[in-house]
Amino acid sequence: MDSISYRARVERRRESRFATEVGGMLHWDGVSQPVTIRNISIYGALVAGTWLPTIGERVTLIADGLEVCGTVIWEGPDRCGLLLSRAVDPLAVIAEARVHAADHPPITLHRIGPGTYA
Asked: Which of 10, 41, 85, 98 is 20 to 30 Å from 118 at the Cα level?
């Protein structure tokens, strides 16, 4: 009987990915959809959303301090991977999102009575 051995896949990326939760818009073929950038690297991004383009579609990703074209290189049910057309600074994108988040602090509601919040 022949023996088969499998090895775990090794991460072969040259550039580091940075996890984030940055809101943005993805534009393609006359469509604009809100997305969340889940991770980003110098030449790629993983975006999540409810309606996303298919593999091979040319897109434009826009977020605070970022506007870059790219191509969808893989897709999943609620996410897709983008190969960006030019180098971006992932840490600058994340920092810019934090600056704008600080401009708009979250709204906190307090219960002041049954079914009443202020």
From this structure: 98
Q: Please tell me the pTM assigned to this model.
A: 0.73
Mean pLDDT for 13-30 is 88
Rounded distance between C-alpha atoms, residue 111 and residue 118, angstroms? 7
Label residue 65 left, alpha or beta by phi (over 0 means left) and psi (-120 to 50 means alpha).
left
3-class secondary-structure state, position 105: coil
Which residues does 61 contact at the CB level (< 8 Å), separation at least 6?
24, 25, 26, 35, 37, 45, 47, 67, 68, 69, 70, 82, 84
How many other CB atoms sit within 10 Å of the CB of residue 88?
21
